[in-house]
Design goal:
With 176 residues, the protein is of the alpha/beta class. The longest helix is centred in the last third of the chain and has 27 residues.
Length: 176
């Protein structure tokens, strides 16, 4: 088979695949609009019901980043009275599990799992969107140096919070 014929077939197959995907209505999650025509959101720091200090601030920072990068311009407001809705929630659990054992008595890797509930509430108190039991997990290495392990744990919490922020944003804007 000639090279020109082969490249033409490859282009045709690629074009056919792209058209098939488009015809099926495939789209990336989170590409929709906010529920009920909401234009401006006030982000309330989630209530932290865990013993993990500061996880609420980490999640708030990750949610802010998610809306700034992927949301419409000006969607987050600093004044609750300027908002159409309030995004709030509860951090229900932060659990640490042993993922891999080094020896029978020591861990080589642990996993942090964060579980939250989130809701978007209109200024009149009507719940526009909610998601309960959202969770994200991230492993981290256990080092001989306890401060290095602590740094790894904090980094894993930040990554898990980032995953949760992305999940919240995508679910809220998926129009399901």
């Amino acid at each position: 088979m000639r090279r020109a014929d082969l490249s033409g077939k490859i282009i045709a197959i690629g074009l056919l695949a792209a058209l098939t995907i488009a015809a099926c209505g495939y789209r990336f999650t989170g590409g929709g609009e906010l529920p009920a025509g909401v234009q401006r959101i006030y982000l309330t720091i989630f209530t932290n019901r865990t013993s993990e200090l500061g996880v609420e601030s980490v999640l708030a920072a990750q949610l802010t980043n998610q809306f700034l990068y992927f949301g419409p311009s000006g969607v987050l407001v600093n004044d609750r009275s300027a908002a159409d809705a309030d995004l709030s929630g509860v951090i229900a659990t932060v659990r640490i599990y042993t993922a891999t054992l080094r020896t029978q008595l020591s861990s080589a890797e642990r996993r942090v799992v964060i579980t939250v509930a989130a809701r978007l509430t209109a200024t009149d108190g009507k719940v526009l969107w909610r998601a309960d039991g959202l969770s994200a997990a991230q492993p981290y290495r256990v080092e001989a140096d306890k401060s290095a392990t602590e740094a790894n744990r904090r980094a894993a919490i930040a990554i898990a919070a980032g995953i949760l922020a992305e999940t919240i944003y995508n679910r809220m804007t998926s129009n399901f």
